[in-house]
Amino acid sequence: MSARGFQFAIVASRWNERIVSALIEGAQRALKQTSADSDALEIFRVPGAFEIPLSAQKAAETGKFDAVICLGVIIRGETPHFEYIAASAARGISEASLRTGVPLLFGIITADNAEQANDRAGADQNNKGYEAAMAAVEVANLYRSFDK
């Protein structure tokens, strides 16, 4: 699977900055591992997970990207806020992908606590940013095969 010749966007939240930065690093590692061109990635930062879907849709609508990788972290708290944000982010990303026809990959960690979130943002291949970027490369290749 090769990322050569494809263009990618990452839309990542600034909330939970340290963990999201690890997700971005994981995504960059995956793209490098799959031979992405040095200028194949643009990163866009948004305040939180709620802002990811519309920003990802805007990136997709530019026509510049073969896939958009959505990265963030939502940690359960003591109020229902977690459920609202997680559901809105998931639904919004899915709907934006369907609307634009551009693959928008879901790399948002939804965790009960910070320990779970950190485990999903480690330096190994279980990093959700790495997984989302690998999926982006795979789907971009699949979409390109439809055009042949």
List the topology elements:
Blueprint: E1 8-13, H1 17-33, E2 41-46, H2 52-61, E3 67-75, H3 81-100, E4 104-111, H4 114-119, H5 128-146
Parallel strand pairs: 1-2, 1-3, 3-4
Helix pairs in contact: 1-5, 2-3
Give a verbal description of the structure.
- The chain has 148 residues and is α/β, with parallel strands linked by helices.
- It has five helices and four strands, in the order βαβαβαβαα.
- The protein has helices spanning 17-33, 52-61, 81-100, 114-119, 128-146, and strands at residues 8-13, 41-46, 67-75, 104-111.
- A four-stranded parallel sheet has the order 2-1-3-4, sandwiched between helices.
- Helix 3 (81-100) links the parallel strand 3 (67-75) and strand 4 (104-111).
- Helix 1 (17-33) packs across helix 5 (128-146) and helix 2 (52-61) packs parallel to helix 3 (81-100).
- The chain is globular, with a radius of gyration of 14 Å.
- The model has no long low-confidence stretch (mean pLDDT 94).
Enumerate the strands of the largest sheet in spatial order, edge to edge or round the barrel. 2-1-3-4
Largest sheet data: 4 strands, parallel
Percent range for β-strand residues: 15-25%
- How confident is the prediction overall: mean pLDDT? 94
- Unreliable runs: none
Give the oligomer, counting copies of the same chain as homo and different chains as hetero.
Answer: single chain
Distance between the termini: 17 Å
Overall geometry: globular
Order of helices and strands: EHEHEHEHH
Number of helices: 5
- Relative helix content: 40-55%
Radius of gyration: 14 Å
Alpha-beta content class: alpha/beta
